[in-house]
Amino acid sequence: MRVGYAAGGFDLFHVGHLNILRQARSQCDFLIAGVVSDEMLQLTKGAPPVVPLSERLEIVR
After folding, report:
1. Which terminus, N or C, of the chain has the lesser number of Cβ atoms within 10 Å?
2. CATH of 3-60, one of 3.40.50.11460, 3.40.50.620, 3.40.1410.10, 3.40.50.2300
């Protein structure tokens, strides 16, 4: 069994994010989608996310 992992902020989820997840899923038997925390997005992007973590988790689920 091949397990894949795709992490992202998935802030303002759009078709590009969906395509990333679809492509990642096509390369494995089971995909784990990691959603980066609000704090990590603030640190890496220098701005808080538009969509809070709880909502981004639900979107990616």
Report:
1. N
2. 3.40.50.620
